[in-house]
Amino acid sequence: LAAVARVQGACGFAALDLSTGDFRATEFQGEEAEHRVWDELQQLRPRELLFASSLPLFAAQQARDSGTKWAETPLEEWVFAPDYAIPLVENHFGVLSLEGFGLANRAAAATAAGAVLHYVRTTQRGTLDHVDRIGFYERQNCLVLDAVTVRNLELIEPLFANSAEDITVFRTLDATITPMGKRLLRAWMLRPSIEREEIERRLEAVDCQVREMVAREELRRAMEGILDLERLLSRVTLETANPRDVLALSASLARIPRVRSAMEPLKAERLDNLAAALDDLPELRQRIDSTIVPEPPLTFVEGGVVAAGVDAALDELRDLSRNSKQYLARVEERERERTGISSLKVKFNSVFGYYIEISKANLHLAPPDYERKQTLVNAERFTTPELKEHETKILEAQERIVEIERRIFTELRAAIAAQARRIRETALALAEVDVLSCFAHLAANRDYCRPQLDDSADLEIVGGRHPVIERQEIMRSSERFVPNDLYLNSTTQSILVLTGPNMGGKSTFLRQAALIVLMAQMGSFVPARSARLGIVDRIFTRIGASDNLARGRSTFMVEMTETAAILNTATARSLILLDEIGRGTSTRSE
User: Fold this and answer.
1) Left if phi > 0, otherwise alpha if psi is -120 to 50, otherwise beta: which for 154?
2) Among the listed ranges 56-60, 354-358, 393-397, which one has the minimum average pLDDT value?
3) What confidence score (pLDDT) does residue 320 get?
4) Which residues pair with 234 in a beta bridge?
5) Which residues contact 190 (CB under 8 A, 6 or more apart)?
6) Which end of the chain, C or N, has fewer beta carbons within 10 A?
7) What mean pLDDT comes out for the span 70-89?
8) DSSP letter string, 346-389
9) 3-state SS assignment for residue 391
10) pTM of this prediction?
11) Among 432, 527, 448, CA closest to 207
12) Is residue 559 pLDDT above 90, yes or no?
């Protein structure tokens, strides 16, 4: 769910994944604000976009032109008023100021976030306890990849949707174990770091695991079976969790001690900090396991969710319900002796309740205190005051059982929601452990090397390989990818011009350079014999060509416009990939 807000010339953007509690916001200034928000929308691809009804939705037409689809939901203007939206965010997080979240003096971003919270509270039942933080982010804090670059490098989706081989960079590098790790890998891929210290800490954690093969594989095995803690938690706080969801949460937390134990031989500062952040919440797990039966039904319709010994009143009612068969057998035996009718039966069905059935041949033996209830072809059904009383007790008992079990489960769900912050922090730490372990697994099994980072503007790759094509060749077992070298710097060799025949590998070489840089700044080892690079702040790509005749733009004009945008935005630390540029129709007759 995303929202766009305009406040005093700034364009604010906020996005919430309700299923995980991931909440983030940013804002942009100047003439490029709308274009930059469009880039965010293209990367995020929300299911629904909120905006003020009076705001002309700049993204709507672009979305239709590009084929991107999301629901467009206009809200009343007052929802996007800072005086309403910002206090809503402050109250939700229980703070007097949003400075601690990086939103101080960011009125547009905070207003967009407030609109998201307003809409969710209006449309969803339950609490939002799992939404316990919001992060302000700036594009300058990460390696910037616009929507065009993400598409051209085939990071998340293939360039041609109908391709027989749906191979992307994400699928090639995804060896994560948990759903949380899979999401974090995607986030790191779309927003690689530009902080050298942060990247080095990740690389050190990966390097440690590459050297310790046994410990690494033990760690990966320990994470198997851990389900999606973030989404299970969101079901709890949104009050949609069923008993099996709660048990799944407990079972996943129960595996955390094994993960911590497997991390002990791995000596790296980042892994030590992550191990300390893993909390298995033993008290909460004990309460869940002692409250819910091991294999509960999905619903409370017939009871049987809460374990014995949890509630005395519940146990008493269950005894009454379970002993009803024995009670009917005693009544049947007694009434047979009393009436002398050996074929007399005491039965129950959901329509008529409890009854005594006597055949037509024995009707003359029926006592006067029997009350006729139903006439059949060959028998008559009767009831007695005693059976009526017992029937009322049994039916009330069943209703009370369901009522008490619902109450106990609601209290348990509230107890879990109260620990939402601890569970979420554990899920975040576990996701990072998973991704770093994934990087180490890939490095060890695919012969990746640790990239060397420095403060230069150099890019030196020796024996580089394309990570996706290399895997395809291995799977085909027919050809081997031929490694190649690359050297660029900011002074003597800042431009490299590639020429050669079609299918000669030019495009592969271009994309390979970008992917090696991107993987290095994610914190991963890279497919090369060695790699040395300075931090890159943005990757630009201009690949392929297309007319936009509806807007009066030829292929050549599209290429020149996109190239101009790159040249006006790039810095000395940007990596620019131009694959075939300047093609057009000549005005000369020859």
Assistant:
1) left
2) 56-60
3) 76
4) none
5) 43, 145, 150, 155, 156
6) C
7) 91
8) EEEETTTEEEEEEEGGGGGG--TT-EEEEE-SSEEEEE-HHHHH
9) helix
10) 0.81
11) 448
12) no
Residues facing residue 73 across a β-bridge: 50
Per the structure block, which two tokens stand in for 24? 């983030």
Confidence band of 509 (pLDDT split at 50, 70, 90): very high
Query: What is d(CA 430, CA 201) in angstroms, rounded to the nearest whole number?
Result: 16
DSSP one-letter code for 427? H
CB atoms within 10 A of CB 507: 17
Among 134, 127, 120, smallest CA distance to 50 is for 120
Is residue 356 scored above 80 in pLDDT? yes
Cα-atom radius of gyration of the chain, to the nearest Å? 33
Helix H or strand E encompassing 51: strand 48-52
Q: What is the C-alpha separation between 384 and 390, in angstroms, rounded? A: 10
106 Cβ contact list (under 8 Å, min separation 6):
12, 25, 27, 98, 136
Count CB neighbours of 419 within 10 A. Answer: 18
Long-range Cβ contact pairs of 272-279 (< 8 A, separation 24 or more): 274/429, 274/432, 274/433, 275/433, 277/425, 277/426, 277/428, 277/429, 278/426, 278/429, 278/430, 278/433, 279/422, 279/423, 279/425, 279/426
- Tens of pLDDT, residue by residue over 27-51, are 988 777 777 788 788 878 899 999 9
539 Cβ contact partners less than 8 Å away, ≥ 6 residues apart: 143, 144, 145, 149, 153, 514, 517, 518, 574, 575, 576, 577
Read off the tokens for 575: 């990596």
Stated length of the chain = 590
**Other C-beta atoms within 10 Å of 140: how many?**
9
Tokens of 440: 């180490």
Identity of the residue numbered 305: V
Residue 127 has pLDDT above 80, yes or no: no
Residue 264 has pLDDT above 90, yes or no: yes
CB 572 within 8 A of CB 457: yes
Q: Are 435 and 184 in contact (CB under 8 A)?
A: yes
